[in-house]
Amino acid sequence: MKKQFLRMVGISLFCLSLLNIEGIDLVYAANYEERKVYITSQKVDYIKDKSKIEDFYSKKENVIENEIIVKYKEDEKKPSVFSYFWGKSNNKEKIQKIKVKSKSELDQRLNELQNDPNIEYIQPNYKYKKSELTKSNQYNSVNAMMLSTGVSEKQWYMDSLGIPGVWTQSTGAGVKVAVLDTGIDTTHEDLQGKVIGGKDFTNSGSYMDDEGHGTAMAGIIAADRANGIGVSGIAYDAKILSVKVLDSRGEGDTLTTSEGIKWAADNGAKILNLSLGGDSSDPILEDAVNYAVSKGCVIIAASGNDGVFGVGYPAAYNNVIAVGATDEANQWSNFSNYGDELDVVAPGVNIYTTAPKSLVYQTYNVYQGTSPATAVVSGQVSLILSKQPQLTVSDVLKKIKDCSFRLAKTYPDIFYGQGVLDVSKAITGVDGTLNYAVLASKNDNTIGSAREITSSTSFSDSIASETDANWYKLYVPSNTVAKIKFSSGNSGLSAEIYRNDHKSLENIMFPFNGLYVNEEYYVSNYFSPTYYYVKIMDNLSPTNSWNTVIEYKSITDPVIPKIQSLKYSIDTLKQDAVVTENTLNIGGWALCEDLIGNVKVKIDNEIYQIENGVIRQDVFEAFPEYYDIRAGFNGTIDLSQLAYGKHTLTMVFTDMIGAVTSTNPITFTIADTLKYSIDNVKPGMQVTSNSLPVGGWALSKVGIAKVEAVVDNDTPVELKYGTSRIDVYNAFKDYNNMTSGFGGNLDIRKYGYGTHSLRLKLTYLGGRTAFSTPVNFTIVSTLITSMDTVREGSIVMGTTLGIGGWALSKAGISKVEAIIDNNTSSIMTYGATRMDVYNAFKGYNNSKAGFNGTLDVGKLSYGEHYLKLRITEGNTKVTVLKPVKFIVQSPIYSIDTPINASTIAGNTLGVGGWVLSKAGIQKVEVLVDGVRYKELQYGINRPDVYNVFKEYNNQNSGFNGTIDISKLPYGIHHIQLKITDKVGRVNNSKAVSVNIADTKKYAIDSPQSGKIVVGNTLNVAGWVLSKTGVVKVEALVDGVAYNVQYGINRLDVYNAFKDFNNKSSGFIGTVDVSKLSLGNHSLVMRFTDARGQILLTEVRTFSIQKP
């Protein structure tokens, strides 16, 4: 029995913690590599559409079953029978509550309402409940107030907050506070005359309290001080409106709460105290809140009593003051919800206040929770507004920010908000004092003061009260299990474990269920290294102490226990299932002796977190011995990044002590359901235009987000997807897609002529992609062209080259360029009228196909060159035509003199002839043996040449000049012309050969051969002729030279050789032979001409004899 009782306590605590998490939504972080689960709660304005439909099914425990709330548009004309209206007659909003009898009827009505154009939005009728944990009465008698302070000694929070000191400044007079609650006992001795009116919205017939919660809140705010008994309200001169929105069970709904807010605002309330809350954002409730704020109301609401991250509603709304609870030591109370929306905290533990005697058999009682904390803040704000009635809710929030006792290192803090409101400072500007009713031995109630654990360790710890909490910051590496062993003497000890953001729950609770028994728990981390936060508390005992041992193990360590007595069923996925969607819905149930605390899904090697704790009445009834009505699990896994094909799925169950068991794998197949057709691009199709129309249809059961066309693996081009294709819909009705068509035009101008491939790239909803089978198509050129003016082998004689012709393409012609010898291109003018071409090729429909232009060829060298056309079509494709050879004609000329192969003599050579060029002649130079000699005179009149070559139109083409050839040796030499035209081109003529002959003639008159010389001298005489001229005559006697005089008049020789034209060709001289020996000697004459050429005569002998 003991074990069963403890199990039920654990289950109750577990369910309380799991089910009443206010303002928390489980969401998957879609792009997070480890797919962790995050819990988010944000103050955001609800977008009013029809999206709250899902809450009818996903938040069943938070809504009233089979009830629908509908808000109609303001311009809706149909008269409707409404069950509820808000506010007074000036309120034009039309709200209707519809009740149905079954889920099937609910489904039907929701479907009808969603399609009604007169409806603004649809939502469930959400539940709201009081935010108070009633404490057993500790005070049996009604004590009189202390005369010195006017408060009961049991009202510890009054002195803690310094309230009595403020009463000299403000008592709450003139402030009307609406207590939206279970009603108020107006007959209570401390509340008589305080309640000035009210309204019941629960159909109980009276705004009197039939539960007790509302009476308690009213006493905290405004209980009578003057009567000297019981308790005193914080703002004891304030007046109260009893707005009954919660029934005798402390429960209300969307309509009761919303109507109450509107009524309070319309009936003069300045402050609305809502010590209540719900778990879901509620559009109609939010409208009511906004309405009240617009009327100048300040709304103060409880954050919730589940001790988890996430402020409840309406406290979570931006324009509502959200209140959390602290204890006597001004530390966070472990039941108080926390989060980013929290604005302020106030005492919420052991709050002594009024109670209806008819219900609790005494007129005063002790309460705790965020409900009394909210009433404390309402009393504080009443004191402020009594002095400063003009303040709005934003002004009050600023007062809280500027005038609060700080309880944490940074602000705002998720546990303390801005801190505890300093009413004295808010009213007078002078800092008050925050007193402690109990002095805490340590401050470790919040995450900011958590004990950090990074390695195996052991320690002892304790808590001081049932609202105290200790936090551990536990580091767990990846694929590691932290084994936690607790030893406690009290059975009420419990723990909650959070991931590193302390906002998403891992194992939400481990109930310690053994008196003096060692308990072991296991925290498994399958993901990357992370911190867990462990909250330890005892809600059953005022104090507790324990020993903790922490060890780290591998996640595969066999010491980690397996779940005993596990029963489970995976309802939504069977072995060898085929999945065609982007998501996989996993649903089922699991039971074990120690309750299932966590459910994960492992697909291949990836771990996914899913929700557990889902109500399964059928499982509870089938296995009542497990005492677990929340055995269900469900979740949606994103498969969009997984490949098509076979995969394995394993469920990983973790029980409440951390024992882990994995199920046998289930094999399933992700199937690609793609069907498609490219209707207008067929294999082998020829394309002649600039664009390629691509159209067809594509279907996939996962949905198609985008269709793109890819040519030759180039960048994809998006097509328009979603056009109506009823024919496809009729053919494949199971895909249920009437808009599967796609289409678009591809600009294919950048692709060359020839064969190309086209593929579709299909992006599915969720991001997976697929490619279709390639289709080959051919881009065909329609270019035809002709170059009319330059033909193969054309002769170009001038400095310009005229280009003309035509070009046609069905893609159009954007540019025609002419290129000579692969040099820089020149753009031709395109668009000249060519009717001859138009008539010949009417299919091209282009009468302006001509092109023309003039190229400067003056800088081209003489000889062969190549011209090609480069044509750019309208599709940007470029075609270079076959080159055409043309010849730049060199000048024509004639060398009249000297005549080729002629023999010449003398020291000069006359050169003459003519040269013609259409470029004009700049100069003519003569080269001898390749060496420039001189520039000749050009421009001599040559009518004979003009008459022969009249097309050159040049009568002065002659040239002549004389060159000095005296330095040239005798023999063959080559004469050339170097012709430079007027554009600077140079051309060398063919060579003319000439033979420079040696023309020497001589005679040795004396001595004669054999002459006998008697004496000391030898007379030498004779003559010598040369057309080059003789510069020296020498007599060589036995090889020794002796100069001989040259230039002696010899008319006889002149007359004999008149062509030499030399009258002084004689030479004469005397040689001293006195030194020579007797006997024979030799004589040779040596002649040197003007070129330096030497001629040696034959040898003559003479004999020297004695006289």
From TrEMBL:
Organism the protein comes from: Clostridium cellulovorans (strain ATCC 35296 / DSM 3052 / OCM 3 / 743B)
Official protein name in the record: Peptidase S8 and S53 subtilisin kexin sedolisin
Keywords assigned: Hydrolase, Protease, Serine protease
Active site: D181 (charge relay system), H213 (charge relay system), S371 (charge relay system)
Domain Peptidase S8/S53: 172-417
InterPro entries per record: Fervidolysin-like_N_prodom, Peptidase_S8/S53_dom, Peptidase_S8/S53_dom_sf, Peptidase_S8_Asp-AS, Peptidase_S8_subtilisin-like, Peptidase_S8_subtilisin-rel
Residue intervals of the Fervidolysin-like N-terminal prodomain domain: 60-125
GO molecular function annotation: serine-type endopeptidase activity
Pfam family, one: Peptidase_S8
Keyword Hydrolase: yes
GO BP annotations, alphabetical order: proteolysis
Hydrolase keyword on record: yes
Sequence similarity: Belongs to the peptidase S8 family.
